[in-house]
Amino acid sequence: MAEKALNILELKNNNRYRILDLLRYEPLSRAEVSLKTGLAKSSVTTLVNEMINEGILLELGPARKNGTAGRTRILLDINGSYGFVLGINLHRKRISVAAVDIKGKELWSFTLPTGDITTIEALELIKKTLPKKLAETKLNIKNLLGLGVSAPGPLDCEKGVILEPPNFKLFNNFPIVEALKKEFGCPVVLENDAVTLALAEHSYVKKQIGSSLFVTVSNGIGGALLKNGDIYGGSHGIAGELGHISIDPFGEECPCGNRGCLEQYATLSALKNRFDIADSVELTSENSQKGKAAFDFLINTMGTALVGAVNLFDLDTVILYGEFDNDTEKITAALEEYIKSHSVICRVHPVKVVPSGLKRGSSAFAAAIPAINYFFNNSV
Amino acid sequence: MAEKALNILELKNNNRYRILDLLRYEPLSRAEVSLKTGLAKSSVTTLVNEMINEGILLELGPARKNGTAGRTRILLDINGSYGFVLGINLHRKRISVAAVDIKGKELWSFTLPTGDITTIEALELIKKTLPKKLAETKLNIKNLLGLGVSAPGPLDCEKGVILEPPNFKLFNNFPIVEALKKEFGCPVVLENDAVTLALAEHSYVKKQIGSSLFVTVSNGIGGALLKNGDIYGGSHGIAGELGHISIDPFGEECPCGNRGCLEQYATLSALKNRFDIADSVELTSENSQKGKAAFDFLINTMGTALVGAVNLFDLDTVILYGEFDNDTEKITAALEEYIKSHSVICRVHPVKVVPSGLKRGSSAFAAAIPAINYFFNNSV
DNA sequence: CATAATTAGTTTTAGCCTTGAACTAATTAT
DNA sequence: ATAATTAGTTCAAGGCTAAAACTAATTATG
Predict the structure, then answer these.
(1) What does DSSP say about strands A144-151 and B221-227: parallel, antiparallel, or unpaired?
(2) pLDDT value at B210 more than 50
């Protein structure tokens, strides 16, 4: 209700966006689009045929519905080759880049190790490398429909500025969005990396219905909150900071200012230090006592933070992405059990904890998603 | 993006609702409405004049803008006497009811002590008492535009059912919305009590911009999350359960299943038991050592939970409502200080902690708000 | 195998909504 | 007193969607 009123000119666009948004998840016939949007069949015909002429949509050809009479449907699909976007993930020690077509297909990706580079140097690196790579892979910059940038920690997405991230000095307070917009002449959107991963999971792995929390575990612990596929961004687009939930107010001091933050306990490196284990495999090994202790510790600490999140957010799904590749199922099952027995809400609505369907190293791909979203509906 | 597409018939209604929604907060002229909605002046004229004819809007008469040339504005306002709604707050030991006109003015309210009553008896009591009171106060049931019901704890707002609340057996799993709809023949909406209070604060005390958490402290501790005035309801409309955030995983068992829940520490009765203090006055008294200890304890426990909420939600305001009437400013100031020094986000965006502007005992009034919202925009 | 039934998609006409421009109305600036 | 400014209205024009009647393509049925 807070947005501007719709004038009649925006109405058409609005309905076009709605149709596109439906087709992003699965090919549908005109009849099905009509049913799902509530628009009249005739309106769908008009809008769809316009978009086919413009090249955004494709007809996939006839497709039979099993065991029904009547004319065969003609499935519609987004035309992937209409254009593409670039995703750039900024990381403490590397920058990774991916090209993704508007259907969500990754065209290529690569990683640049950066080491101790300055902001200006990093920007120059991006400016030089991207056009070269585009030329090599025969992608025309004219078809570049947008650019998504993701980074850890607090950002100001509206202003397009990365804000003093802990353990991350690159691009500190630098107006990266403005700089890239100027260079590449396309829309540029900045988003938290956990947010982009959550959106990627929702759009291209499994549509998230209801309220879900996407948790990333690597150097730090990040999180992003989704409600029916929309990000809940909080006041400054930095909601979901699970890593700095205090699970022990008398615990060690954390660089963030708080004490006993989850991030100090439940990352792989923290567990390695505390329990002297070798790797994530040892966590779920039957033979290692140290591994078992570390596993229990992980479940208790992470579980405590998640119970808080479940109670506050009324979650029904928690998605885990990151370091604990090995036997993720065992970890998610244990966390689910922990939450079930420690949350009020769960007595009524059980929470599912599942591993992310995204493969590791999807950050650059994920960074591209907000740019695709922006293309499809002018909003991240 | 998830809703249905707009057909042209809904467009008009949509714009009417937008205009009404603007006028709920302050009287505006047609020109200002045009500016704020983006609708053409001529469209505003048409829509507004229609609504004046229908009796929903009123012209307040000419009003000068200070120091500008031109014709005087004619301020528009919601017509309070167009109709009213009833709010019913269900509490462990009482039911309170309020009549509120659609401008948000409380017409009357009263409280029924219920004691150990059964669900059926309580329902009968409501069915009998309300029409009697309406007749007494000369309110015509024809002008009853809606009915809002609020209750503590987990609910299923969509289905209109109160779900096994802890410490609250009344209406347990009872389809209250259906029953009342049948009896009174108007829309009935069910909402969590903290949610209704948050909406009341937003609509009739101070418009909440950004992300805010409304915290209620009484027998238990509840919470509701607002983003630009819209409730973030979570998966089942029960987000914000601050009271069962664990602040000590090794603490006492809570009836909810978790351990060391905030609710076990930071309510007035918990503090009374733990520190042997007399009342909330003692908390902020200069002379009481016990009071000081209790105060510090309150700030630390509540602060810990709030830091978690701030980090997860990226809050910029926390609003406190409830038991700590005495010297609330001192408590909010201390909490603000605690959060400032314990949250990552706050280093970038300071969080404000403020006492609610609602007077105590606003539950029934607040319960009516979702019904008003429903009247204005068909959504809670 | 022909006809009916069913489902998909298109064409065309009509109606509704918003708009923009030109207007009236009411006030201040000079 | 006249110009400038802001508020609000009227009305013709244009754009979007809807509904109905249509064509198209397939399965069910005897």
Answers:
(1) unpaired
(2) yes
